[in-house]
Amino acid sequence: MLLGFSSKYEKVYQGSVLDLIAETVGESLDMAKLEPKDIDGVITTWLPWIFDGTLAIGFPENYISEYLGIKPRFTDLVQYGGASAVEMFYRAYKAVKSGEADRVLCIVGGKGTLMKKQLREGGVEKLSEVELLNILRNNPFDEFIRIYRDMDPISFYAMVAARHSKLYGTTDEQRALLAVQQRYNANSNERALFKGPLTVKDVTNSRVVSTPLRLLEITYPIDGVLAFIVGKGTSQLRSMDIISYGDVVWPEFFAERDIDIVYTPTVESVKKIDFNLNKIDAFEIYDAFTIMVLTELEDLGLIEKGKIGKFVEENDLTIKGNIPVNTGGGSLNMGQPAYMSGIIVLEEAFLQFNNMAKGNQVSGADHILVNGLGGWNTHAITLVIGEKK
To answer: Which is an annotated GO molecular function term of this record (predicted)?
Structure first.
C-alpha cells in the first residue's frame, strides 16, 4: 500500500517551497518506480505563510497538481494542523481501498522559517489585536478570548505543563528526562538536526520560554516536506496496512471544554483502536513539547493519568529500552517542518517498519503506533500500522 516516500528537512532551505516539493516528490516517485502520469490522487494541506511566505493559497491541491503536471481524479485538503500528515495517510489508504483512486500522492510541509519570519519581522507584532483578528482567527470567539497577545501555541502547552504539575506533582526534571531519552535516539539518527550529549540538568538550565517550559523542551521550526505515495501495485517496500485507526475532533476552545486541559483528544481516539497496545514495537508520538508526549502516553492508556512522571523514570523509552518512543529523536531533535510534527513521527514509522532506520532501528518493528495531535489539542489521530497476515 505504501509505494514510495521521501523527505528533506533543513534548518533553512535556500530554494522555494515548490523546489522542495518537486525534489521530494521526484524521489518518492523514483522509489515507487512511477511517473507523474501514474498518479490519480493528490492530498495536501497548508498553514499560513508556509508556502514561500504567502498567507493563503486558493485550492492548494490544484496549485500543486498543476505545478507537478498531475491530473488527479481524487483530491483532498486536510486541515488538521500538526496531525495532518497522519490523517492524510489514512485518507489516501481509504481512497485506494474504496476505488476512488489507484495511486495517491500526499504532500505535507513547507517553510516553517518563513512563518517564523512573518511572525517576528513581518509587521505582525505591530498589529493591534483587532487588526490581527482580521488576518487570522483560531475560533469564532477570538475577540472575546484573546484579549492579550500570547505565544500561541507555546503559552497553551505551558499552561498544560503547569496544570499537570499542580494536579499530579509532575516535575521539571521528569519532563526533562523525556527530552534526554529522545536525544539519545537522535544521536543514532544520521538525519537528526540536533545532536550531542544532553542531561536533565542541561534541559532544566536552558532558558524559560513560557513558564514552566524551557528551550530544550520545545521543537524548533524548520523547512521541510514529506511526500509519500499510497496505492495499488508492487513496491520495493514491505507490504503495509493500517491495522487500526481512530480519530476525534474537539472543536471547542480549551477554556470551554468539559474536560481538564491535561487531557488530549487521544483519550477518545484510542478507544477506536482494536489492537493490543502491549504488542506495539515502537510508539511514534507527536512531540512539539515534552508535555505533549507525556499526556499522550497517559491518554493512550500506557499509564493512568497523573503517573507519567514516575513512568518515565521507571521505564526506558529509548531505542534500546522496553518501550521505544520517538525512535528517531522526534521533532524535538529533527525539527518541526512547517509547524507540523506529525510529518516527523509518520515518516519515522515508515522507516522503522521497512527496516530503513539504520542506527536507530528497533529490532522487530512489526507493529507501530502513530499518534498525531493538531491545533490546541483539537484533533487526534491514532493509528497502528503493520502487515496483515
So the answer is: acyltransferase activity
